[in-house]
Amino acid sequence: MKRTLATLSVLLLAVSCGSDSESTTDPGDTSDVVVDVDPDLFLEGTTVTTVSLTLSDGTVADCYKVVAGSPTDHEMGPWCPRNISDGEEAGGIWLENGEVYDVDGAFVANMATFYGDDTWHMYDADGDIYVTETEQDCINAANPNVGDAYRNFCVECIPDYVSDLEQTWYIPVTPVRQSSPADFAAMGPGGSGPAIRGIAFNGVEFSASAPVDNILGAHTLAPFDDAGGHINVHQGYHYHAATGLSTAVTQSDGHAAMIGYAADGYGIYEQRNEDGSEPDDLDACRGHYDDARGYHYHVDAPGSNNFINCLYGAYAN
Ligand SMILES: [Zn+2]
Ligand SMILES: [Zn+2]
Q: Do 103 and 217 belong to one domain?
């Protein structure tokens, strides 16, 4: 019986190897080494337990339930500077055309020029910047149909506005490769996959792209802090960019450092290797395979308002 099973495995391996060599355009289509999620990588302040859940491929599998509150490895904020004379330490960052800009006083003072739009004038005669000051302001300003009331406001939702910053995530203990990748759900209703891209070791969500066109279209600015995160009252604190401030696990072979796990349990790594190079064999999801890490993802550039593009593994429903 054992021998029959062994023979069958060899046959299956042979079949999958055959299909691998045919699809050379898909460098991610290799699964010799599969690396389980390491629960010890999650930081103090997170709670990791094991639960049994149905995955997107219909199978039932062990998943880690990760419960996290505020990040314990860096501060949240600041977001909006208060005066156009303020330096970069008073504000966060903004992402535009693939670049990361410090939101300091000078950035705010220069917005009409930066965007070629004279409507931008987010400060008074004393140089004081109009910043949302209450939870209601923060909620109202996040509404894309907010209208003129919050035009030329810097929108800032502070941790005090969120009574419970606790978030719960589920990721498969062992990643399960799918034959085709799953797209992420679009913001709002609709879409099939999960909306979250993954989580950092501090339990903070790597989020969908921030709706910067809506934000700017309302002539508001909703900066991210230097860690690439900000708060809305529904999602809590979440990241839109990997800027290198959350905990990263250095790799001994010069490969990019690991910064978290995708929603399918595959590892998420920084964009660039230690020598500054970016892997040149990433698939459409921004993933590739090596024997040390198995299949894994590399995040997009910090200024891109994007992390990864799809999931090649099954995710918890
Ligand atoms: Zn956001
Ligand atoms: Zn890699």
A: yes
Nearby residues for ligand 1 (ion, Cβ within 5 Å): 210
Which ligand lies nearest to the CA atom of residue 257 in the structure?
2
Nearest to 314 by CA among 76, 21, 55: 55
Overall pTM surpassing 0.85 (yes/no): yes
CA of 180 to the centre of ligand 1 (A): 28
CA separation, residue 264 to residues 183, 194, 304 (Å): 12, 10, 22
Domain with 56, as residue range(s), is 29-70+165-204+246-313
- The domain tally of the chain equals 2
Same domain (yes/no): 127, 215: yes
pLDDT digits (tens, 9 = 90+) for 44-103: 999 999 999 999 999 999 999 999 989 999 999 999 999 999 999 999 999 999 999 999
Instruction: Using the mean position of ligand 2's atoms as its centre, give its distance from the Cα of residue 313 in Å.
Output: 16
Backbone φ and ψ for 110, nearest 5 degrees, come out as -100, 5
